[in-house]
Each structure stands twice: as structure tokens, then as C-alpha cells.
UniProtKB/TrEMBL annotation:
This is Alpha/beta hydrolase fold protein. PANTHER family: ABHYDROLASE DOMAIN-CONTAINING PROTEIN (PTHR10794), ESTERASE YHET-RELATED (PTHR10794:SF94). It comes from Accumulibacter regalis. Keywords: Hydrolase. The active site is at residues 141, 268, 296. Belongs to the AB hydrolase superfamily. AB hydrolase 4 family.
Length: 323
């Protein structure tokens, strides 16, 4: 697999991050499946190509994707990765976190960056459903952080569920990432996230009156302020500082025992390059790949209008040839 090289017409991490949002990959014919959670809530899983339960696909590898903040199976990286997996005969499933499938979830809680217990329940259920198939998991951004945290916490037990994993553009240090998004041009991303986060929070408040301080939620101008009033208390944290510290996956990287690809661009505007771990700060099972360019889940290649093929090819190449 060739190393990533950014096209000359798309310089900089911001361009690499924003441009993929303008590229509209062809939608996939998802088959949706709803799971009831152990706490009487639900999540929706989107399968491609269809739920892999037929004898003809019984031995094909299963690729599991955990999306990023306010993402879903509609995200560009989900569409391109699952299409690439299907092209080589794999089946894929995108796990839409609670409240991310287009329908608000039942409980006050939703999803968060450190929700490794949710990751554990999902992966173990998939293993029970398809015990004979190779399983590989990919986490993107928030989903990558949660997956890495699960890998570090479970250590050797992770092999009970997966053959290998990959984390793409994960915010390894939540505090560094959160505060970095509150500075300069990065505030554009913050406003984008807050728009949907606040809309979803308002819908949750209508279902659960008095759940949190609506005035503070609507006045939040940073992810720190939003997490402090909504995300943290709804998921058992004392506040944003406590949430960001306990949810960060970076301290867990030395404990990972499963073969894992850690792919972060050095010009990712969400995470300062100085916070990326050195080789000595991760387990020997972790393959670090930190290209100089690529932005946040960008990695656009080719001449205009650009292509999004490099990232899914990099992920699949890792699972097929480097594990």
C-alpha cells in the first residue's frame, strides 16, 4: 500500500477535512436492523450488502464500523469503506450510536467518546451471532477513541471478539482536542457540531423535561461548555474536565494486545500533532501511521474532483496483508 500524498490543489488540513463533505458518494442500499439494548433502549445497525446470514456469506469477513461525533451510516467514510469491503466479498455493518440513526433514543443517555462498555456489548453480540467469521473493527474519530479505549481495557480479551482493529483520526487526548477546537478557524467545526448537538439535546429535553439546564445548553459556544452541561452529567461524569480525562484513549494505548492500526494525519485540525504518541508510547501490537497530510478523516487523492478511495484501501490493506 503506497503512503498517502495529498494532491497539490488541496493543501492544508482544513481543506482536507472540509472537502470530503462536499463529495457525495453514491448511497448504499442499507438493510437496517434494530437491537434492543440491555437497559431497554435501542441502537440501529445498517448492513451492506444486507444482513450477512445466508450460507453463501457465512465465512466472509465481517467489517464493523463505529462512526464519529454526530456521524452515521450516511457519513462519507462509512459509505466508501463499506462499498470497498463489499467489492472484495466482505460484509459490513455500521453501528449507529444511540440517537444517531435518525430517531431519538429512549433514555436520557446517548453516546460519548469513552463508551467502551457499549462497544463491548456490541462486539460480543456480533461474535455470538457469527462465531465462525473473521471480525474486524474500525473506529472513526469519536468511534475510534472509544474503540481504542475498549482495546486497552480488555487487553488480551479483545481477541475473543476481533482479529484486528483500526482507529482513524481518533481524538486520543480529549482535553487537547476539545480545547484545540475552540481556537481560531477550528471554531468553524465547533459551530457545526454544536448546531446538531443542540438540536438533538433540545429534542431529548422535550422527552425528558428538566434533564439538564436548557439555558446553559443553548448558550454553549464551545464543546467544553456543551459537554459540561449535557454530555458529562448524562453519562456519569462530574463535568467536562472529568469526562475528557476519563474518556481519553491515549493512556490505554500501551495496554492494547490486539493488532491495531492507528492512523492520524499530522495536519489533522482536531488534534495537535504534538499530542500524537511516539512509538514508545504504544504497545508493540499497535502500528502507527502518521502521514504529514490528510486532515481529519480526509485523505483526498487524485485530480479534481478528487477521490476518497485511499482511506478504505489503506484500512482493508492493513487487515488483509499487515496483520
Amino acid at each position: 500500500m503506497t503512503a498517502y500524498r495529498a494532491p497539490s490543489w488541496l493543501p492544508g488540513g482544513h481543506a482536507q477535512t472540509i472537502y470530503p463533505l462536499l463529495i457525495r458518494p453514491d448511497p448504499l442500499p442499507w438493510r437496517r436492523q434494530r437491537w434492543q439494548t440491555p437497559d431497554a433502549d435501542f441502537i440501529d445497525l445498517d448492513w451492506h450488502p444486507g444482513e450477512p446470514a445466508t450460507p453463501s456469506t457465512a465465512s466472509a469477513p465481517l467489517l464493523i464500523l463505529f462512526h464519529g461525533l454526530e456521524g452515521s451510516s450516511r457519513s462519507h467514510y462509512a459509505t466508501t469503506l463499506m462499498a470497498a469491503a463489499a467489492a472484495i466479498g466482505w460484509s459490513g455493518v455500521v453501528v449507529n450510536f444511540r440517537g444517531c440513526s435518525g430517531e431519538i433514543n429512549r433514555l436520557p443517555r446517548a453516546y460519548h467518546s469513552g463508551d467502551s462498555d457499549e462497544i463491548d456489548w456490541i462486539l460480543r453480540r456480533l461474535r455470538q451471532l457469527f462465531p465462525a467469521r473473521p471480525h474486524y473493527a474500525v473506529g472513526v474519530s469519536l468511534g475510534g477513541n472509544a474503540l481504542l479505549k475498549w482495546l486497552g481495557e480488555r487487553e488480551a480479551e479483545a481477541a475473543d471478539c476481533l482479529g484486528a482493529a483500526a482507529a482513524i483520526s481518533a481524538p486520543l487526548d480529549m482535553s487537547a482536542c476539545g480545547h484545540h477546537l475552540g481556537r481560531g478557524f477550528n471554531r468553524v467545526y465547533t459551530r457545526h457540531f454544536l448546531q446538531t448537538l443542540k438540536r438533538n439535546a433540545a429534542a431529548k429535553l422535550r422527552r425528558h423535561p428538566g434533564l439538564f439546564d436548557e439555558r446553559r445548553m443553548r448558550a454553549a459556544s464551545s464543546l467544553y461548555e456543551f459537554d459540561d452541561v449535557v454530555t458529562a452529567p448524562l453519562h456519569g461524569f462530574a463535568g467536562a474536565d472529568d469526562y475528557w480525562r476519563r474518556a481519553s484513549s491515549k493512556p490505554w494505548l500501551p495496554a492494547i494486545r490486539l493488532p491495531t492500526l492507528l492512523l492520524n494525519a499530522q495536519n489533522d485540525p482536531f488534534l495537535p500533532a504534538g499530542t500524537l504518541p511516539a512509538a514508545g508510547q504504544v504497545a508493540t501490537s499497535v502500528r502507527i501511521d502518521f502521514p504529514r497530510a490528510g486532515g481529519h478523516v480526509g485523505f483526498v487523492t487524485g485530480s479534481l474532483p478528487g477521490r476518497l478511495a485511499w482511506l478504505p484501501q489503506r484500512i482493508l490493506h492493513y487487515f488483509q496483508h499487515e496483520v
